[in-house]
Design goal:
By secondary structure, this protein is an alpha+beta fold. Helix content is 46%, strand content 26%.
Length: 175
């Protein structure tokens, strides 16, 4: 938003490195457990669990390391829109609303900031491959295609929504 003929400076959120290092440690623990399960061969279930865990959490570890060592902010908000490291760039005119969503799995939950898009199909046509490949799963869970995990951001999701409203005062926030 422009105030007194001066645009707001971008709001830049770097990756929360401490949290991401913890995610890497957890991922590597699961790789190690998978290797133990593969080596032990005690039951078929353990062998299958190891065969699934090693490549899955190995890939997660590689992606986490890339996130740790790239020199790019996790999220940038400016007067033109939103630029997220994983989701890409959105103009404010593409976003119908934003909301904080929670995904609960057993005893834990994960908060997301969902960008409710005017035209999700247009976004999916240009979205990164990982976003396109997870879109149908997100839809089955009741989410749209543009969801930002908040665990890699250095501030709570409410602070991000406040900053979004500063840059785009007419932005609808759904509860």
């Amino acid at each position: 938003m422009i105030r007194n003929s001066v645009p707001l400076p971008p709001t830049v959120y770097p990756v929360a490195k401490g949290r991401v290092w913890a995610m890497l440690a957890g991922s590597l623990v699961f790789v190690a457990l998978g290797i133990v399960f593969l080596v032990a061969h005690s039951t078929l279930k353990m062998t299958v669990a190891g065969a699934v865990a090693v490549p899955f959490f190995g890939l997660c570890s590689v992606l986490i390391v890339q996130r740790l060592f790239r020199d790019r902010p996790e999220l940038v908000l400016d007067d033109a829109g939103v630029d997220h490291v994983r989701l890409g760039r959105f103009g404010w005119d593409e976003i119908a609303a934003v909301r904080i969503r929670e995904q609960r799995v057993r005893n834990t939950s994960q908060l997301f900031i969902e960008l409710v898009l005017h035209d999700p199909d247009a976004y999916l046509a240009r979205a990164p491959r990982l976003v396109r490949s997870t879109a149908s799963m997100n839809a089955r869970l009741g989410f749209g295609p543009a969801n930002m995990a908040t665990n890699t951001l250095p501030v709570p999701p409410e602070a991000v929504l406040d900053a979004m409203r500063r840059h785009c005062p007419g932005l609808a926030v759904q509860h």
